[in-house]
Amino acid sequence: MDPTPTEIRLRTESRCLTVSFDDGQQFDLSFEYLRVSSPSAEVKGHGPGQEVLQTGKEDVKVLKVEPVGRYAVRLIFDDGHDSGLFSWRYLHELGREQDKRWADYLDRLTAAGYARRTPPDSPDP
Which residue ranges traverse the bilayer (predicted)? Predict the structure, then answer.
């Protein structure tokens, strides 16, 4: 059985979403990490190898968290992105694999020649 969130807290000052699960795990997921990891077709594409590298998301904010049934949330970002449904399973996966996924993302940015700017008030995930 997949872990289910017991609490989802939008933390605008620290620019992260804190998700606590019924298996005892808790993850702080930065807004930037969530935006560049969105499960939407805009980010993931429509099949393997069609992923679109997201750049310029260092300052993105989550404006709203909307529940979708009993299995997911939709995150409304201030850049207009709102099409990704973050299932409980996917949020848990993002938390468990955060270090590796973030390092992979930074490597892809470097390979693409993009120099990521770290906002002064927002620590990396």
Answer: none
Tens of pLDDT, residue by residue over 27-85, are: 999 999 999 999 998 888 777 778 899 999 999 999 999 999 999 999 999 999 999 99
Closest listed residue to residue 57, CA positions, set 84, 38, 85: 38
Distance of CA 38 to the CA centre of its chain: 6
* Domains of the chain (ranges, CATH numbers): 5-111 (3.30.2020.30)
**Rounded distance, CA 5 to CA 54, Å?**
27
Determine the Cα–Cα distance for residues 24 and 69; give it in Å rounded to an integer: 22
